[in-house]
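Morning - 3-methyl-2-oxobutanoic acid inputs below, output right after.
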Amino acid sequence: MTVLDFARRKQAGEPIVMITAYDALFAGLVDAAGVDAILVGDSVATALGGEETTLSATVEQMIYHGRMVRRGARRALVVVDMPFMSYQVSAEDAVRNGGRILKETGAGAVKLEGGAEVAPAVEALVTAGVPVMGHLGFTPQAVHQLGGPRQQARDHSALETLIRDARALEKAGAFAVVLSTMPGRIAQKVTHVLAIPTIGFGAGPLCDGQVLVLTDMLGLSGGDGAAGAKRYAELGAEVREAVARYAQEVRGGP
Ligand code: KIV
């Protein structure tokens, strides 16, 4: 799966399946399950690292997790998140950090958050040969500015801004864009005006693809990453039960 396949999928009307993973073990499992793309999200900081927000993730950490995921993935496109402050200061920073991420992980693309304001960074990355996925709507790196994880783009003027941002990312060369935590009808309108595919995260069923946070959909986290995100398993409960049974056996003696 390459970034070119993303465009073909949209043209053919074939949905794109994306999921996060943070290590080789789970990357191998989700790849074998047939996903199209694996996102090494900076959600690693919250999903595995116990942090409140994604802001603490570093380029080194994303490279570490990206390498592991790349080793586990055979077919899926691996996309690595650019962490907070690795691309916001300047386009030069973006190219330096995005280039390192691609070079040192073997991933096929990076993802970064924001709209028209990050278009120069996206353009510089794409010009340097680094494919970029955008991310609009609720952008966790702006959590403090957005007043917490909440639905975005709820009115008509927000839709106009969203479309302007999405078009700026597309014009800058992004190959796809995540639409996060917004009403389905809004995501549908953005999907309709873009030539590049949209990947929904808590944005209704009418995007060109969907992404879920692995630990949420497997029931491994207490939280619920995207508003109303569906859980496909309750592995957290299974792990607790298995380990409690083991402890009971050990304490019960031979
Ligand atoms: O970091 C992440 O997991 C993400 C998803 C929420 C799309 O950006």
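Note: Strands lie at 16-20, 37-40, 77-81, 109-111, 132-137, 176-180, 198-201, 209-212.

O.
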